[in-house]
């Protein structure tokens, strides 16, 4: 067995939105620096490797989606390992490490990874390195970066122990270690180069602060004249004066060639990933102009494509980056005149990484920046590190190195991650930074489609699906101008010609279908978030704001079923809805009143968080949905615990879903007279039985 095979390990990722994939690829890329070779593959392709007899170490990077599920691409693998007929030592030969990704804003934190981890353990597989649980709520990199740093040592030890148990492997181990030491000493050398570099940078800063400015950049002068307050561009002591631990410079692996052939006219994405172009047949503003947020309902005509869905499903929606931001980026990178060139992306020589699949060959530069790369994403530390190397000005370079350093972690969080700063914001703040296109292609993630829950039933609206969304608004900050959410802001602009206020008659009939705005969508079926198959089961729905969307679909469906089958028994339906103001943003007010009036909805419980109390004795009036749940605790508990009913929660993951969950624990604890731990077990049981279902987003 040759040396390369001994030092080779496998990386499998299960990715829903591309994060696990990009981390897996990052590990693969870094592996060479540490004397290893890695094969990286999506879990959906795991048939290419035979885990049943795999003796090489395996690294899994697994994200979590939905209600704590493994990502779609990992489902087949999970089903395979969950097969009950597998013996308990099925994977006793397997040595693995697992990095689970999740978000503590959601229930079942990291459950996708935990599911795989637990099952592998049950089947006898052994960890060669402790499992990492990274939290997108606080920043994945807080766990991911040190986890990857520690992985190399763990792999080295694993390969060594494999080698000592294998005579042939002895030489291999030497070779591996030789590689390792060579890399380590190179790294050490790089590190000392870097320290020297940083030392010089510090001196140049000190000089400039004493007025003996080395740079002539006006922004530096501005920086010096302002008081010492940290900002994206400027640090304050102790950070500005300390030596920095910066991440290793990520190795470049792409070469980008621009060819002067005209690709003009290429304006829409291909339909490779199952997207359909459909007409937007209606757009209604559901909120008044003076409401805090603008909610818009869209009706899509899906009759031509014959797309089927059930209430509870969602639709992935493609959206482009803003034309103005793409233009500015092209200008800033000095590529404006080449925007229609065809792009060829190749791997640099001797590289085991892969050309990112989301970058098409021969697409125009403008097309790729518009439809393929998430240019709004907050640059990861590795990207910031790489950008520093393309920054001429000493102080700017030092600041970028600070922002990606261990010592500058708090600044990174407040001035980049939490401020939703994107590449363009950094390029504006650091004018001497001029990265090559290849760096953008290596670091910008895939532009992800946004999901919207169906707010309709096809029984009530044949050939149509409705969405409702709030236009996300990012207010102006020192780090960036005011802007709207990528998809919601684009959709709002895109439908402005047909947008009408609630209650007005559409003038659409005059517009032919060809004049209607179009959008690319793909159904995203839910495996569990549906009305119970047994219509007599009672349901409690909690959906404040746009969280009411799937429940409008549920109720439209129930209304039609009741009309069609008047003899049948239907379970009680409760809806807990909330908004800020009764008269400004009470979404679907008339439709909900109709459901309540005709008995489709047994109980409509509404609260308004910002309205003044309007009656005597309303001091403790319910403000949020959880307050109303508490007021109806007896009914909720009885539906869940006695009548085997279902609880559905939809909407904001950050606050609402947590508060509702806490209230549920309280309701169940009080009802059953049990402590919090036992209440948690009961709630976990409800989840397991798919009687407590969440469709939540941030
Ligand atoms: P982006 O540009 O992607 O920005 C959104 C990001 O910014 C989020 O990370 C958010 O935390 C953050 N953010 C939001 N507001 C602010 C602010 N003021 N300041 C700072 N940060 C902020 N959304 C709906 O409206 N209706 C639905 O029916 C719906 N259904 C969904 C169903 C599923 C299964 C999923 C996964 C999501 C659903 N969403 C729904 C969320 C939706 O997919 C988008 O995430 C949302 O519309 C924002 O997209 P955007 O591109 O406009 O915002």
Q: What's the structural blueprint in terms of helices and strands?
A:
Layout: H1 3-6, E1 8-14, H2 19-33, E2 37-42, E3 58-62, H3 75-81, E4 95-102, H4 111-122, E5 126-127, E6 132-135, H5 141-164, H6 167-209, H7 218-225, E7 254-259, E8 276-285, E9 295-301, E10 314-317, H8 323-332, E11 342-347, H9 365-371, H10 381-388, H11 394-404, H12 409-417, H13 423-429, H14 437-443, E12 450-453, E13 464-470, E14 473-474, E15 483-484, H15 486-494, E16 499-501, E17 518-524, E18 539-542, H16 549-564, E19 573-579, H17 589-597, E20 603-608, H18 625-631, H19 633-642, E21 646-652, H20 656-672, H21 676-688, E22 692-697
Parallel strand pairs: 1-2, 1-3, 3-4, 4-5, 4-6, 8-16, 18-19, 18-21, 19-20, 21-22
Antiparallel strand pairs: 7-11, 8-9, 8-17, 9-13, 10-12, 10-17, 14-15
Protein architecture, described:
With 698 residues, the chain is an alpha/beta fold. The chain has 21 helices and 22 strands. Strands 8, 9, 10, 12, 13, 16 and 17 form a seven-stranded mixed beta sheet that branches. Strands 1, 2, 3, 4, 5 and 6 form a six-stranded parallel beta sheet that branches. The protein has a five-stranded parallel beta sheet with strand order 20-19-18-21-22, sandwiched between helices. Strand 14 (473-474) and strand 15 form a beta hairpin. Helix 5 runs antiparallel to helix 6 and helix 6 (167-209) crosses helix 11. It is globular. The chain binds flavin-adenine dinucleotide (FAD).
